[in-house]
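Folds abound. A case:
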Amino acid sequence: MRFGVLGETAVWTDDGQPVRVPELKVRALLASLLVDPGRPVAAHRLIDDLWGDEPPGNPTRALQAKVSQLRRVLDEAEPGGRELVVSRAPGYQLALTEGSLDAHRFAGLAARARTAPDARTKSRLLGDALALWRGPAFADFAEEAFARSAVNRLEEDRLAVVEEHAEARLDAGEHAELVGELAGLVERHPLRERLRAVQLRALYRAGRQSEALAGYEDLRARLADELGLDPSPELVELHGALLRQEAGPVAPDAPTPRTNILAPISVLVGRDDAIADVRELLAGRRLVTLTGPGGVGKTRLALAVAEQLKGTFPDGEWLVELAGVGAGSGSGSGVGSDLAEVVAAAMGLRDDGVWGVRPEGGVTPGAAERLAEVLRGKRMLLVLDNCEHVVDEAAALVELLLRTAPGLVVLTTSQEALALAGETLWAVEPLAPEGAVELFAVRASAAAPGFVLDDGNRGAVESICRRLDGIPLALELAATRVRALGVHRLLDRLDDRFRLLGAGQRGVPARQQTLRAMIDWSWELLSEPERMVLRRLAVHAEGCTPEAAEEVCGGDGVDEAEVLDLLVRLVDRSLVVVAGDRYRLLESVAAYCFERLREAGELAALRERHLAYYTGLAEAAEPRLRGHGQREWLARLDAEGANLRWALDGAVERGDAGHALRLVDALAWYWVLRGRLGEARRSVTAALELTASPELTASLELADGEAALHARVRVWQVGVTILGGDGEARAARTEASLKEYGEVGDAAGVAWARWFLAHALSGTGSLSEGEALTEQALDGFREFGDRWGEAAALADRSAQRLLRGDLAGAEEDAARSVELFGAVGDACGQLWSVYPRAAVAEIHGDYARSAGLQRDALETVREFGLSTQAADLLSGLGRTALLTGDFDAAREYHERARRTAAELGFRAGEINAELGLGLGARREGLLDEAETHLRAVLEWHRDVGLDGANALILAELGFIAELRGDAAGARSLHEEGYATARSTGDPRAVALALEGLAAASALSGAGKQAALLLGAAAAVRTSTGAPLPPAERGDVDRATARAREVLGEEAAFEAEFRRGEELGADCVHVGLSGSQWGSAVSRQPPSPPRRHMGPPG
């Protein structure tokens, strides 16, 4: 079992399921034992910890009862759990295994980080350590005397690791991001000198020397005032370096790594000239295909070229492996094999923010078109490996991408050409004699450590290399036999085999015969269990974990316990490759083994085992994506993408509706979290189509569980379709899917269905449609005690209330949502409420809190790889900086947000950043630049059917017109903005429009109208509990001054202002001769804006 103290005291089973310890005293007992983990705690101390000054009548017996209760709870959660609470003089001890306590894992990761070879590795390990914290240590007993020293010690350890983490990230070049994130930490811990030191160095390296010097002075003054101390000698030295401008290089922010190509483990032998030739071709050609037979080294050569080109392409170098697309190690295609989605996933692109929401009747582009649009302005290298499996599909995709993205260069490997215009073919030849000898010698010395190439064996090695035609894979397989045979006997054996080879396989190219002969020979030398495991491995796509190998390859003649030993032997023979924690087959070996699998008559059975295993894996992951361990499980599903697609392909091909529905149901939330909405929609649709036949429909009707599953997948289909931007008949589809689920699903499931569809509708602009469903879902979740569901519904309702102007309700819901998500361990879920909480703080003028919330969220976003949320958070920080008057920081944040979003193809994030740049430019007086940004935002909102999001944009454009002296243009824009604001139901948007109309009226000389409108706007803002903060009063103050000047008499202004306060927004209908507002108000744009920070999708 696992225990947690880095947050509330917690217990989990080995597989991550939370264990509820129901009684307070029992939880206190557990906490007291965990204060001294692994050591006996005296009975009298436990009694004092639990009862303090009011002990029970028989303290010893009472303690024994609580111990028994704790043992029973642990044993019920996991058999044998009671044995963990040990009676040991002078009291009791909690028997912990290595790594079972989160505090120990935290300390272990920190210790490993301190010996890390480089700053990035150290940063990653320290980040992993900090991610274990769920809140303050012993949060539920932090005020108890028995826990206080442990709480203080662990908090100090955490802060020390926070400081080390910041230093490692600074050394890795992440100074620009640190500048923003450290501000909140320093504010909370202003006297920690080490923390201040890293902040000062980050500010300096970001080019903000004056702020670094000011920060030092602030610390010096605080130390003197509060502690009567001077700064440490180290800080004094750093201050001097700042003054001398010697505090390290002032460098640009370290770029996000724009590649997924890993450094090679071993040197590529004998290919220097080939690498140079291919690089030269790529310098002048946009499509180069490396051709050649299997085993000749096409993939290794392509990767070596890409590795040498790292940094050459501004938008990176990306590898996409296609061997596993469509059909494991075999051939064919299916639902999971859409190449564009595979490419997008490999590049870390999401498809939930490229196009935005399509209005009713709009057409959502396909995956290939979306990918092409993302790559349109990129300059990058795309490496597509093993295209021969899907050569027609690959050719079509490459043609589209090259036509759309003029800065794209494509390098492919294939046994046949793509046959596209402009394609340059480069035949990968076997190794030259000297290169072949070198490769054989390197591999032979690895297999037989005593082997050395010398004059006595060189002739035999050269003959072996000639016999094997210099084919790298054949040479590597032969080299593994040196330990058993030596080179001379190996040569004799090869001569015998190739005499036999010459008599058969006529019509097959000699080099293919050579490789086949070597793989045949290696196969024949295997034991039967080794052969069985090797051929069964071929059922996997792009490799598998040891656990998958044991379950899928074991049984029916192979003891499952022996699978790993057999795999090690196959690795030693170069038939299986180890890559990290995965085993995989080289493509030529995989094709051979797939053929052997068919010959053995095992293919169908192995496909079923494969499907069963990966369905089980997905179902095990599904609940964990909502709680503790979600980062680990997200990474596991990321790694298994090819196997999951291949498993679903198999279910669809065989018409296995049950497994297909189970698999897509388990994966749907993962696809939503990762922004893979196209894959989600296509996959759930394919699974549902299996049930279209009358026979299958009848069978589903007979099985309530299957019918409920079918209805649940239908809800997923409708929800991801809406989230993906397809607005066609969404209300009707929502109603139909809820009706179907209501007829067969349980009440708890109906609550989930209502929530997910409400989430989809609200997240894409259909606020009114989503609100009612959210309320119904919330009631259902509370009725069934579903804390995760309640948290999710509250997060959505918080954003809905914010859009309606209910700031207190939004804050209340968001705070409760964060609390509930924290209780179930869903760190991603807690991010959902960052936007409403930060927005409410910003509206109230609490900019420090708003920025602090967003900076803290950035840390979580980075840990989970949620880059689209990072883009939005950066924009949010830019907005906060703008409101505090820090225009330089605001521009920096918004530019970083725009770059981040552009790299991901997250168009909505780009637009969000562009809006921020437009707001900043206007406040700096750069009116032309501001209008350019804002017009771009306006048009995009209209293109995707988000007209309701334009209330702010129209107000800003109206203010620009007014600042230019164009009263008529300003009035027209503000009238349209007022109508838009009324349609959203957001009183703050209405108030902004009224303020804009007041400014236009004052400019045109209508002082009474201006005063009236200003009073109305003030009343509307007051009604929301959020009067205009001082930092945002510039436009209002300008309009007020002009109106006062026009009216001349203060009393006249005050009278009209008070009248406006009394009328509120209704003032637009009163006494405004010549106004066209009445007609403007009648125009009702379709919906309020989609929030950018919120639940995934």
